[in-house]
């Protein structure tokens, strides 16, 4: 039973000898096939490298996952207040990795190098933002990360558990205390 036929290929020969099909290729066709095989092998090597990179990152990361991110700069003294951009949907999905002394931002989890990074030592504030509803009525839970340089990363997710995990991990890794008084008047750190 023949499931596949090669009639459409220019080098297909319909003559058969003893059940063996004879295929004659020109030098150009052979070189073209070799080139295609080399390209496929190169692509496979790149994909293996990406997979190994993702594996190393995920095994050694404290926390990782996709978050919706947007960046803002804090206003400098004398600048007018920022324009209210609540209606602008500029949240972009990013794969965020909390690893060692850095917070890495990747465009995709398979990227070999991060799109952006922030040192944990530069983070001065991590706090929760009010949740909000998107156009599709999906509730997003949000938090922000403020660096000492004035860069503010606003992060959101549809999972409250994920946001709480990020807040907890960032507070502990950045050594940021909540500084909130407890019921007995002491301060939690």
TrEMBL record:
The keyword Nucleotide-binding does not apply. Keywords: Coiled coil. This is PH domain-containing protein. The keyword Cell membrane does not apply. It comes from the Eukaryota. It comes from Flemingia macrophylla. The lineage of its organism: Eukaryota, Viridiplantae, Streptophyta, Embryophyta, Tracheophyta. Residues 60-175 form the PH domain. Residues 23-57 form a coiled coil. Signal peptide: none annotated. InterPro entries: PH-like_dom_sf, PH_domain.
């Amino acid at each position: 039973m023949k499931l596949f036929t090669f009639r459409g290929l220019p080098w297909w020969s319909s003559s058969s000898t003893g059940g063996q099909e004879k295929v004659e290729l020109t030098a150009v066709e052979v070189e073209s096939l070799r080139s295609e095989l080399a390209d496929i092998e190169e692509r496979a090597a790149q994909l293996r490298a990406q997979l190994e990179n993702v594996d190393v990152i995920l095994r050694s990361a404290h926390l990782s996952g996709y978050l919706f991110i947007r960046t803002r700069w804090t206003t400098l003294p004398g600048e007018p207040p920022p324009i209210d951009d609540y209606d602008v949907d500029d949240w972009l999905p990013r794969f965020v990795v909390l690893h060692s002394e850095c917070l890495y931002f990747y465009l995709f989890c398979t990227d070999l190098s991060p799109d952006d990074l922030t040192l944990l030592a530069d983070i001065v504030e991590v706090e929760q933002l009010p949740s909000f509803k998107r156009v599709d009525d999906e509730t997003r839970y949000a938090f922000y990360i403020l660096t000492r340089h004035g860069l503010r990363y606003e992060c959101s997710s549809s999972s409250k558990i994920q946001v709480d995990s990020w807040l907890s991990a960032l507070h502990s890794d950045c050594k940021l205390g909540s500084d909130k008084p407890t019921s007995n008047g002491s301060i939690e750190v």
